[in-house]
Amino acid sequence: MRLAELSERSGVSTATIKYYLREGLLSPGRRISATTADYDETHLRRLRLVRTLIQVGGVSVAAAREVLKHVDDDSLGRTIRLGAALWALPHVPEPDDADEDVAAARGEVDRLLEMLGWSTARELATLSPDHGSLVTAVASLIRLGYPWDAEMLAPYARLMHQVAVRDLDFVEAYPSESEKVEAAVAAAVLLEPIMRALHRLAQEEESVRRYGLS
Amino acid sequence: MRLAELSERSGVSTATIKYYLREGLLSPGRRISATTADYDETHLRRLRLVRTLIQVGGVSVAAAREVLKHVDDDSLGRTIRLGAALWALPHVPEPDDADEDVAAARGEVDRLLEMLGWSTARELATLSPDHGSLVTAVASLIRLGYPWDAEMLAPYARLMHQVAVRDLDFVEAYPSESEKVEAAVAAAVLLEPIMRALHRLAQEEESVRRYGLS
After folding, report:
1. What pTM was estimated for this model as a whole?
2. B161 CA to chain A: closest CA distance, Å?
3. In this structure, are B10 and B59 located in the same domain?
4. From the first residue on, what is the mean pLDDT of each consecutive set of 10 residues in chain A (214 residues)?
5. Which residues of chain A are within 8 Å of residue B77 when distances are taken between CB atoms?
6. Considering only CB atoms, which chain A residues are within 8 Å of B194?
7. Are both A195 and A110 inside the same structural domain?
8. How many angstroms separate the Cα of B189 from the Cα of each of A199, B83, B132?
9. Domain span at residue A49?
10. Same domain, yes or no, for B134 and B39?
11. Closest residue to A130, CB basis, from B121, B133, B200
12. Which of A45, A155, A156, B162 is the most exposed place for a label (fewest CB within 10 A)?
């Protein structure tokens, strides 16, 4: 298909598509004359993924390029490809261990992972930005005077594990390795707002069941 | 306590505390001379909440003022106070119903809420920004070619309801109404990064269990 059709089908303007091409977020089409190129379904799929990362996920162009580099690197195993792509997504700042609330939070997170038997999370603790995000957020709760510990976090972690099992079942349904990794990135970006919205709707629902609407 | 001690105990600089006082995010201390004022534990607690909203939750000063206005309005019932505070937190843009993917997503969300028996969420659908966020994210999945429907969303919604039951149990443990609403806001802001981090750690863990670390 030509650029105009790619724009029509993706809902992305031709100016934005040209920008993504220049920035290396989209591979060039097959050149068929000095001024026209031909694009296929893989371009369309990639363009939708780029738009999701940037417009819905709030990811910067530089971070999107980083995520896609890992998505496309088929020398890596699936766990590493997926992990590397997710790790390139934005995270909260690294926790500062000189802070006593951070030190307490890190202790509770370590104890939590041991309780759960999450051995990969423990091994990757110093590498994974998600581990750092978790420590930072727990430290903030402690600082506010809400003494969250491993026992309070554990049921949340177990529910999130049930969510992760569903995510991976969804991803596995796609045949090729690159479609699997693309589905995983889309799920990572879009399931978060879905879960956040469902979480808040559920809180309202539960609040009305307990206290009524007054 | 004096301003210096309030700063010391909250970890917020005196310049920032003065800024929050000018912006009306913190009520003035009890004046004890022309240049000094006295602050108490309620100031400290409020200051920590403001810092969490702004620094961890990424909420603007204007949005934080809006949230706190509802937190402090004891003419409202608990569900409304909590709802109004949560609704003032930032949300993704409202969905555009002229878009066919948005219309399809709205149909699936309606069907989901009916399946779940979430009658409050159905009644408040046109008011709640969370309902709009959910429709927008589901529409993005549909647009990417991932045909998420009510049946795929339902297990996620049921897991989030289990999370909401825990949240409200946590909030109920606080004695006064204003402490309950403060705890609910802190939980809303800080449980989201915690769940996001736990979700990603669980995905890595589950991925390694299924495919190994290669």
Report:
1. 0.82
2. 5
3. yes
4. 92 92 92 91 88 80 86 77 71 75 94 93 80 89 87 94 91 84 81 86 87 73
5. 211-214
6. 134, 137-138, 141, 153, 156
7. yes
8. 12, 13, 19
9. 3-87
10. no
11. B200
12. A155
The residue behind tokens 């495919």 is B211
The predicted complex's ipTM stands at 0.82
Of A121, A204, A213, the CB nearest to B201: A121
Average pLDDT, chain B: 86
Residue of B207, B210, B211 to mutate when probing chain A, most A C-beta within 10 A: B207
- Name the β-bridge partners of B139: none
**Within this chain, do residues A152 and A194 fall inside the same structural domain, yes or no?**
yes
Residues A145 and A60 in one domain: no
Counted domains in chain B? 2
Question: Which residue is closest to A145 within chain B, CA to CA?
Answer: B45
Residues B120 and B65 in one domain: no
Q: Which residues of chain A neighbour B210 with C-beta distances below 8 Å?
A: 168
Looking at beta carbons, which pairs linking B186-189 to residues 24 or more positions away fall under 8 Å? B186/A141, B186/A144, B186/A146, B186/B49, B186/B52, B187/A146, B188/A200, B188/A203, B188/B85, B188/B86, B188/B89, B189/B52, B189/B53, B189/B56, B189/B57, B189/B59, B189/B89
For residues B142 and B28, give the distance between their C-alpha atoms in angstroms, rounded to a whole number.
50
Q: Are residues B115 and B190 in the same domain?
A: yes
Q: Is residue B145 part of a domain?
A: yes
Chain B residues with CB under 8 Å of A50 CB are none
